[in-house]
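Final report, closing paragraph on structural work. Over the funding period we assembled a curated collection of sequence-structure pairs, and we close with a single example.
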Amino acid sequence: MNIKSFLFAFLPLTWTAVSAPAHAMPYCALRDPAHQLFDMYPLANTYRSIVHTVDDNARASVSAALPFTLHARELGEHTLYVPLQKTHSLGIVHVRTEPGEWGLVEIAWALDLDLRVRDFRFQRCRGPGCDTLPAGAFLDLLRGRQLPEIRELLSDDGTALRNRLPGVSADEQALAVTVLRSAAKTIAVTGTVWGVDIARLN
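Its predicted structure, as stored:
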């Protein structure tokens, strides 16, 4: 086999080997668990993780609770993180990825054990609001909310804000919708897939 034939035979295999892992990357992973967990839960001194599969049953459950559902690429094994103070569970952290106006938005959600929003951080974000929404009036509006209360902030079809929100400028509204959709999905999925684990943590 000459060098040209070898290259033509080898290159497709190289492309498959390089591209497959990128295509199969987990859709919700905490990029720096120790730093992010302890940032959102300053009293934590350790953490544990619980891995489960988000499957078609979870997708159906989200569809029943919301006017939108999980993308096929959101299915698969995902990790729930539990920040601990010694052996005491302080809450949970779950990362979800949501398509936004400027591309994929990765959000790390901190929830209490009753699945109320405590905090959130962007892991990946582009466009207006990436620096401002995780603080101030918008975060204050979200804190303590459960799924029905988050759902009330969105239009009936879940594609827009129901009303103008305090602390959200006109340029930030698209990202605010993305964040609210992510919050709703996160709570719905977490309650469905990790419900038994959270009951034990409680």
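Residues 25-201 form one domain. The first strand starts at residue 46 and ends at 54. We thank the funder for supporting this effort.
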